[in-house]
Amino acid sequence: MAKTKPVGDCVLMRPAESGKPPYVARVEKIEADHRNNVRVRVRWYYRPEESIGGRRQFHGAKELFLSDHYDVQSAHTIEGKCIVHSFKNYTKLENVGAEDYFCRFEYKAATGAFTPDRIAVYCKCEMPYNPDDLMVQCEGCKDWQVTSANLSNSALFVFLQLFHACLEFFF
Question: Are strands 10-13 and 113-115 parallel, antiparallel or unpaired?
């Protein structure tokens, strides 16, 4: 029998289809029926691609949305424990492990609405911060610029030229 987890812990749950990543849920209640079958009441986290709006550029690879979708599942479907950090705590992690995720939105599954409906932006692109991308602050104008780890050499060259031009302008 799978180990049950304390109420409030986040768990990875086995999907029905093989090859899919595990579902992530927060354990709300643990109960056993008269035959000692252990069931867990969970509150589901959604991945961005599972939401009505889909995955957007600013969503991190490990980003989840805490939904208002509750369900009761067999404890046997629990594959293991994971940690869903606040966005702030996630960005402070020195090493992100396979079981580390973050959440900065709550999601209403029926309507596709998010809470909060707005978040702070720091970059000139006016997009929310994606923790998978490196951000650099210009010493001259103090604006933030996103630099993707996946930049091509030519794009990185253009970025550095603009960065140096900004520095020369202000100094």
Answer: unpaired
Q: What is the mean pLDDT of residues 89-118?
A: 91
d(CA 135, CA 50): 27
Around 20, how many Cα atoms within 13 Å sit in the side-chain half-sphere?
13
113 Cβ neighbours under 8 A, 6+ residues apart: 107
Residue at token pair 């780890």:
149
DSSP string, 129-160: P-TTSEEEE-TTT--EEEE-TT--HHHHHHHH
Other Cβ atoms closer than 10 A to 4 = 18
Exposed/middle/buried for 83, CB within 10 Å: 0-12, 13-18, 19+?
A: middle
pLDDT tens digits, 45-95: 999 999 998 998 888 999 999 999 999 999 999 999 999 999 999 989 999
Exposure of 25 by Cβ count < 10 A (0-12 exposed, 13-18 middle, 19+ buried)? buried
Q: Would you identify the CATH topology of the domain 10-119? A: SH3 type barrels. (2.30.30)
24, 10 Cβ separation under 8 angstroms: yes
* Residue extents of the structural domains in the chain: 10-119, 133-171
Contact present, 24 and 11 (Cβ < 8 Å): yes
